[in-house]
Amino acid sequence: MKAIVVKPGTKGFELKDYDLREKLGDHQVMIKTLYNGICGTDRGIVSSKLSFSRPQDGFSELILGHEAIGMVKEVGDNVVSFRKGDYVVPIVRRGCGECLNCKVGRSDFCETGKFVEAGIRGKNGFMREEFVDDEAYLVKVPEAIKDIGVLTEPLSNVVKAIDELFQVQRRMIWNCEDGAYSCRNAFVIGTGPIGIFFSLMLKTFGFNVYLLNRRDPSPKEEYISRKINATFINTSKGLSDLPKVDVIADTSGFPSAFIPLLNKMNKNSALILFGTQSGDKTQIDADLITFFVENNIALFGSVNANKLDFKEAINYLTMWKEKYGDALSSMITTRVKPEEASKILLEKPSGEIKSVIEW
Questions:
Q1: Which domains are assigned to the chain?
Q2: Known binding-site positions
Q3: Which of 58, 114, 145, 162 has CA 20 to 30 A from 187's CA?
Q4: Annotated binding site for NADP(+)
């Protein structure tokens, strides 16, 4: 079996023959990998910039890959939800088995920090020709969206974050007179797949969405923003024309990108921090804290997703494919074979929204 492996703490990766001798258990499924999505986490591991990455217990290397879609090859004797030929996506995080959240399937809110994440920390990932996984950690993908099913994992994270947003904002009446959110504005900072998915989610609920970046849009970004009726703003040209805003979703991880926008926030608005970076420093002073307090502004961070979020992500992809057509497909900007993985793992291709490995 071919697999892409890394040694956490060491730069680089290797495509090699790798025999895990995985046996199919009664409640397990054998899956042929079709596509792996690539994100900043994968590149952070390959470049040895993510210190928390570690191999699975008993291994010196880690099989990379947490975004995947595959086809069922074989099922265990007691598997009830899947059959040969089904398309599936695997869930990334597996719980600690100790805290209450993990015991009830909410490992995205693990309280001990002892969880593992496939292809990231403590569990071999899916960047290989095939893998075996427990039925409980798989979600079925309709054949109609098999071409974009690899986008399920990143979207699931956004589904969770938007759910958190609405739970926080239940502290008051936040919807508009029409019952939806057509009177509310949203800034989405960053125009990668997560930024686009935040925009799609917010547009679905009726928000007026502004996609923000420090440059002009690429042709595909311009096409997607026009297709979903979002306004693309190059913030390097100034912020004066931006309206007041009710929610800011930062996917960049750079404080210098979102702090200058905070004075645009309406009373009772919310700031979602999703992106992660290092090195960028921007001062926060007492006046800003006072502004947050006096205006009832909520701030929360969000990471990971649970099985229900994955299922909801598949529902949204199915609905959006019908509504937006090839705008979703165009998010996949680069496809390479495993032998060409260096083209997308060592650096970000020009114009990338989402790069994938095709097995």
A1: 2-148+333-358 (3.90.180.10), 156-301 (3.40.50.720)
A2: 41, 117, 153, 157, 191-194, 213-215, 274-276, 302-304, 348
A3: 145
A4: 191-194, 213-215, 274-276, 302-304, 348
